[in-house]
Amino acid sequence: MRHLKVIVISACMAVPFGIAIYQDSKRSEKDHLRSMLDVASGDEDEFDYGDGPKEAALREQLARMEALRERQAEADLEADPEEAADEPPPSLDESSIRQLLGAHPAEPGLALRGLFLGMKATDVTALPDAMMTWLDDGSGPFDAQLSLEYAGPNDAYVAGITVAFSDYGKALEVANEQWGASRGNDELPSWEGAPTSACAPGAPRAVLTHSDATNRTELLFACSATATQLFAPREKRRLGFERKPILGTTKRVLLEAYQNAIEDGETLILELPAFIGSTGATTDAEIAFDDGDKASEIKLRLDHGDNDLLEQTVLSALEEKYGAPAETPESYDHEYGKPTKVGVTELDGSLLLYFVR
Description:
Blueprint: E1 4-9, H1 29-41, H2 53-78, H3 81-86, H4 94-100, H5 121-124, H6 129-137, E2 144-151, E3 157-165, H7 168-179, E4 190-192, E5 203-211, E6 216-225, H8 227-231, H9 251-257, E7 262-264, E8 267-275, E9 282-289, E10 295-303, H10 308-322, E11 334-336, E12 342-347, E13 350-356
Parallel strand pairs: 6-8
Antiparallel strand pairs: 1-2, 2-3, 3-6, 4-5, 5-6, 7-8, 8-9, 9-10, 10-13, 11-12, 12-13
């Protein structure tokens, strides 16, 4: 459904870099997406790009994308997983850490300039040759690991940006100073940015995690959403992430309304902003259909990391939207609505929600 592509960055830079974004005023967004999907599926020869200069530029960009994939595949084959696991992540000084953090909370800094949440996967590869070589070789005064998490059909856009190093305490101190005090708990420090269209219905968020076993610290930039943003308790006709009502709507209509939906067998997957208790980049909404091909159930798994306060925000938002839960639930741990409209099953560190028709 999604994959990680690991590359290496230098976090100490004298001059910030920018990404050259290919723009084609004559080709619609749909055609751009079709072109990208053709390459992702290996069927690029079946699509007529035309012979103009814009089309030639697109062909060159797609060729870069394929070459990058081939180089990554070769690197994966040559890598020794056990040796990689034993290799400690690099240590960064305070100045370098500051270059990872932008001027505003949850904003990537100068060292990551040009990368942003929601950018097209094809734009990641639209770098000058010198920059692509620099990314592959990881040259610089010191190195830090950078991974990009993709989402959408055929991994169409960037959903998460993660930088790994080994200085958790130093990073936490710098982030609290530069972005203000963390809004998360001690186990999962986090900082929230201003809402953007790419993160609707949530907002950009930076999360800092650490593993004592490997001395690995990770700084994740991703979209996230609160229970209120996901469920819109005061809106009775829809959920916060619905542009069009889902339950009772046919798969064909939903695919038109939600162009980032992923067909997974007989179900559809919507990749939503991650719930604020999660350490991932997305939350999956799995949509099931009845015999009439109409959506009959939406299933969400919200990770809260055994944070009782976060768990309660979910249950409170559901109660505000659907009324008090049933005193004697029949099929779930918590049930809301008459007849049941939402069922909640408690799992270890997460809640499994079923919105039913």
